[in-house]
Write a structure and sequence with these properties.
alpha+beta; 2 domains; four-stranded antiparallel beta sheet
Length: 396
């Protein structure tokens, strides 16, 4: 007997969507799946850049270091264990740190053993040998009392993040030729060095962005003549001009006047490169359809520049700023080493490097080079942050 039953094949998943009743295709799916699928389309520009930036390990390391540098610079007196102007033993070597108490037991808070004469003599030169004085340890701690200072130049305080509990001096990186603590001077000197770098980069960014956008948007003869001037600034030898201009200021001039003049000289000679980069971006943006549409409907030049061109240029400007700051830090350190940046009693990393001017000092007291460490950390931090931002901004 023949089987007359019909074998119906179940519809494929794709047929289910086609034969389904009219309505949203994703109505039968959970709300979480739908929101996860379409959430990326609603994310803003900053969210997309931050999501990609978090994938860069070097960029995150640079961000943490940059934030730490600014926190230390703002609260420099709190983090400095010693008075940066207090004179002790000249060219004293760094103190030895040990996590063992005088009885040989382990201690969570380290002890500092100062460097002194051991009572022994070198068998060849008959010079007294120095080493850690194990009989006189100095206990350390956090949030200890020290020299008085003012938070934000207003609130008086004498609490320091780290130091000795008995008030004795501590020199973790040694002292300079006047007996001043190098670590404390490096921490306090970060204010001047970073302040000069930020001020110079802020001025060069504003001038360079305005000149670049104006030149690229207006075009024509104005663009040609302005670019010739930019090329002249770029071709001018900057180092002789730095030395010539800074030497015009008398030695008796106030420190704030000298710093303002140095910042002005660096800003005048540093805006040209950013102006050329912004101009090239503006030339490409001025030919995009939405800019042409804004021109066609009669929008003013100021509105087109501020609403359409400037937001698209800002991503490049932000990356350029993070990469320009280490260049200014290096330039200030170099000029400070030559004596053309900051004058005493102010403190900067370049001024601290003046003690390393002779090979005999470096050979006898190598710890005097430790201010270079502050410059290297700052340059690495901003370069890592700039590279991470550049990679995060590129796709968008």
């Amino acid at each position: 007997m023949t089987d007359t039953r019909t074998h119906q094949t179940p519809p494929l998943p794709s047929d289910a969507g086609i034969n389904a009743a009219p309505g949203p295709v994703v109505a039968d799916k959970p709300e979480a799946v739908v929101s996860a699928r379409f959430a990326q389309g609603n994310e803003g520009y900053a969210t997309l850049v931050w999501r990609r930036f978090k994938r860069s390990s070097m960029g995150m390391i640079g961000l943490v270091l940059v934030v730490s540098l600014f926190v230390v610079a703002v609260f420099a007196d709190f983090f400095a264990p010693m008075d940066p102007k207090r004179a002790e033993l000249p060219f004293a070597p760094p103190d030895m740190i040990s996590f063992q108490d005088p009885q040989g037991n382990f201690s969570l808070l380290p002890y500092v053993y100062p460097i002194g004469e051991t009572g022994e003599f070198d068998p060849i030169t008959f010079q007294p040998l120095t080493g850690p004085v194990m009989d006189d340890p100095t206990p350390t701690g956090f949030f200890v009392e020290g020299y008085p200072y003012r938070i934000f130049w207003v609130i008086p305080s004498n609490i320091h993040f780290f130091g000795t509990t008995d008030g004795r001096p501590i020199h973790l990186l040694g002292t300079d030729k006047f007996g001043r603590d190098i670590l404390s001077r490096g921490i306090v000197g970060s204010r001047i060095s970073l302040m000069i770098a930020l001020a110079v980069v802020a001025l060069t960014t504003v001038i360079g962005a305005l000149v670049g956008i104006t030149s690229g948007y207006i075009g024509g003869a104005f663009d040609s003549w302005l670019q010739r001037f930019v090329e002249f600034v770029l071709a001018f030898p900057q180092l002789p001009l730095y030395l010539a201009l800074t030497s015009l200021i008398p030695v008796t001039a106030p420190s704030n006047v000298f710093i303002a003049f140095v910042i002005g000289v660096m800003a005048v000679l540093g805006w040209a490169q950013l102006a050329r980069e912004v101009r090239s971006k503006t030339l490409s943006l001025a030919r995009i359809e939405y800019v042409r549409a804004a021109i066609a409907v009669g929008s003013s030049d100021m509105r087109i520049i501020t609403r359409h061109i400037l937001p698209n240029v800002m991503s490049h400007v932000i990356v350029a700023v993070t990469l320009a700051i280490p260049s200014v830090v290096l330039l200030e350190s170099f000029l400070g080493f030559l004596g053309f940046a900051v004058k005493p009693p102010l403190i900067s990393w370049g001024l601290m490097l003046q003690d390393t001017g002779t090979f005999s000092v470096i050979g006898s007291y190598p710890w005097i080079l430790t201010p270079v460490m502050f410059v290297l950390i700052t340059v690495f931090a901003f370069n890592a942050l700039g590279d991470g931002l550049r990679d995060a901004v590129d796709p968008y």
